Amino acid sequence: MEGLSGDRASVEAALKRQRFDGESGSVGEAYLSEDGGRRILVVGIGDSLDAKAAEKLGGTTAARLFASGETHAVIDLGGFDFDADAAARVALAAELRSWRYDRYRTRLKDKQKPTLARVTIVGAGADAGKRWKDRYAAVAQGAALTRELVAEPPNIIYPESFVSRVKANTEGLGLEIEVLNGPAMAKLGMGALLGVAQGSVREPRLLVMRWNGGAKDEAPVALLGKGVTFDTGGISIKPAAGMESMKWDMGGAGAVAGAMMALAARKAKANVIGVCGLVENMPDGNAQRPGDVVTSMSGQTIEVINTDAEGRLVLCDVMTWVQRTAKPRLMVDLATLTGAMVITLGHEYAGIFSNNDELADQLLKAGRDTGDQLWRQPLGEAYDRLIDSHIADMKNVGPREAGSITAAQFLQRFVENDTPWAHLDIAGMAWSDKDKTTYGKGATGYGVRLLDQFVADVAEG
Ligand code: BES
Ligand code: MN
Ligand code: ZN
User: 5-134: what fold?
Assistant: First the structure.
């Protein structure tokens, strides 16, 4: 509170009246008598100066001022020993927490409109500024793209428009984009993905994004996303209540697109390929039926018991395609795959399933470091047997028990040559009904920070 001079005593008195005690996330407020009644916020950070406290500070400040009438906030970190990364994360959290999608609100009153346009951080040192510029500004951009894709309604974002939205937002960043349409995927034998798409008038797409920032012949890291732009369940139709939330069943694909944008925007020194399987799952005269047997690109056949277990049908062909096309050193898929995952972990952690302990540990660590948290889940023979089919190589659902695990077992059947693979079930994480530190109610952007950190840790030397 340096520089308050004559007002210092009255600010302190005001804080006291508000019972401000510095507890993490608490905010005290005062107004200066001079300087046009300038607002002073005093934000509690508890007693640690780690990155988490830094994010809490940035996020809390932004949430408080976002639509307050203030246009410019100055955050003074002087006198606090935040390191450069933590200080930069004050800015990151403020930026993330200020995101809101108002495109369809045409009657917002002036008082409801966001006002905060600029945040200046002082007292942090040049290294923090560099960290923001070289790293987190790009991460914030990527997360904003993810959140936009997730927030958009399903009549606006469908496979084709998902692709054009990603293209429009990443133009000029040097991402190499390739798109496969339905006939191209049919030629490759992607019968599992196409079976899901066949009930929709929206054509499916395979969106491929390549970022080649690493050594010329280094095998890429592959990031795969489930992109079901709307999931009605198909013929195994979902109940009406809450079905609108299935617009964000493309949250995995959204995270992959946002992460690719972030990596390109910060010119990551790594080779990364991002692939999104984009379809809409609809009931229709031409929709696939429970009982249908489809042939995946891998050649393995699948008995479709439940058309609502469609995400795995999309991802299995994406996995085969990326392994055969790009020969990745490892692959990580993200998917809002099962309701069972939400029952297991709620909205605090995404589940991680992996055939490789080292890869799992690297992702778990990236999760701890960024706050995009993960908790490991088991895989095993006994679970795998639960999806054996009497008529085909496998069925697309097991019994009710262990629904997230049998979904992961299904995907594991499409791993070739022991490629290190991790599956992240983000069903509980892509959307939030509550305000948190770095996001308000709505699209969270989960996965962008995680993948950015993971790539920085394992592929950028
Ligand atoms: N997209 C859903 C999973 C989901 C549910 C995500 C709730 C987020 C919130 C997925 O396609 C699905 O419908 N899964 C079924 C699988 C079942 C039929 C085996 C489920 O979880 O009920
Ligand atoms: Mn479904
Ligand atoms: Zn789904």
Answer: Leucine Aminopeptidase, subunit E; domain 1 (3.40.220)
The neighbourhood of ligand 3, an ion, using CB within 5 A, equals 228, 231, 249, 311
**Ligand 1 and 311: CB distance under 6 A:** yes
Q: Where are the beta strands (DSSP E) in 95-240?
A: 118-122, 176-180, 205-212, 221-231
How confident is the prediction for the chain on average, in pLDDT? Answer: 97
The Cα 271–Cα 206 span in angstroms is: 19
Give tens-digit pLDDT for 131-160. 999 999 999 999 999 999 999 999 999 999
- What pLDDT digit, counting tens, does each position of 279-300 carry? 999 999 999 999 999 999 999 9
Please give the distance, rounded to the nearest whole angstrom, from the Cα atom of residue 249 to the centre of ligand 1. Answer: 9
The two tokens of residue 125 are: 């040192």
Atom of ligand 1 nearest to the CA of 306: 18
DSSP 190-229: -HHHHHHHTT-SSPPEEEEEEEE-S-TTPPPEEEEEEEEE
What is the CATH architecture of 144-460? Answer: 3-Layer(aba) Sandwich (3.40)
Please give the Cα distance from 26 to 63 (Å, whole number).
12
pLDDT at 175 over 60: yes
Centroid of chain to Cα 203: 24
At residue 3, does pLDDT exceed 60? no
- β-strands 421-425, 118-122: how paired? unpaired
For the record, the structure tokens of 155 come out as 């009549």
- How confident is residue 7, by pLDDT bands cut at 50, 70 and 90? confident
Where do the domains of the chain lie?
A: 5-134, 144-460
CB 336 less than 6 A from any atom of ligand 1: yes
Q: Report the SS3 class of residue 400.
A: coil
